[in-house]
Amino acid sequence: MSQGVGGGRPCVPKLVKKLRGTYRKDRAKADGPKFETQAFSNPFNVTTQRVAYDEWNRVAPEFIRTGLLHVASYQTVVRMCNVLADIVSLEETVHQDGRLVRTPIVVGDEQVGERLEAHPAMKLLLDARKLYNQLLNEFGGNPSSASKVASQKKPEAKKNAGSDFDSMFGTKRSKVG
After folding, report:
1. Domain boundaries, the chain
2. Distance CA 27, CA 147 (A)
3. pLDDT in tens, 48-97
């Protein structure tokens, strides 16, 4: 039997199933390891790693709130922030140099012409974007996976008992009759 390398569905952790609303106790397997959740400090330098630093500040609080950032997933979130920093750097390179670059056509020892090719950074950029989306999917962080993860916060009750029309326009309709 394959050891998790086959073409089947990946195993989804119990916490993610509960957040998605798909957890069923009758199908539950034995509980996996329980990891310590804590408030992690930002591992990036604010001056030299600004993009990764800002991304950490954007995603980490939400992942901590939902219990998805813990000692076992810490490095994955760090890697995700680093990948975003790589994406921004590669995008700047492509923006400066252009998507296409001229490369010489050499026959023997002699250059016989030039051809246009995709910038080498384009392949790296596409791979980095794909990796970033995969890592983000693990945490329900993009639109396609976010719809599968239910929020743990319950919506607050409306302070105003009026209708949606009243709240939209800030008016109260008088009763006729």
Report:
1. 14-98+133-151
2. 22
3. 999 999 999 999 998 888 888 888 889 999 999 999 999 999 999 999 99
Cβ-contact 100, 116 below 8 angstroms: yes
Find, among 88, 89, 86, 73, the residue nearest to 135 by Cα: 73
In degrees to the nearest 10, what's the CA dihedral of 35, 41, 43, 44? 150
Nearest to 149 by CA among 25, 21, 61, 14: 21
Give me the residues paired with residue 87 across strands: none
For 7-32, what is each residue's pLDDT tens digit? 677 777 777 788 888 888 887 766 66
pTM exceeding the 0.85 threshold for the entire prediction: no
**Spatial separation of the C-alpha atoms in residues 24 and 28, rounded to whole Å:** 6
What are the backbone dihedrals phi and psi of residue 62, each rounded to the nearest 5 degrees, phi first? -70, -40
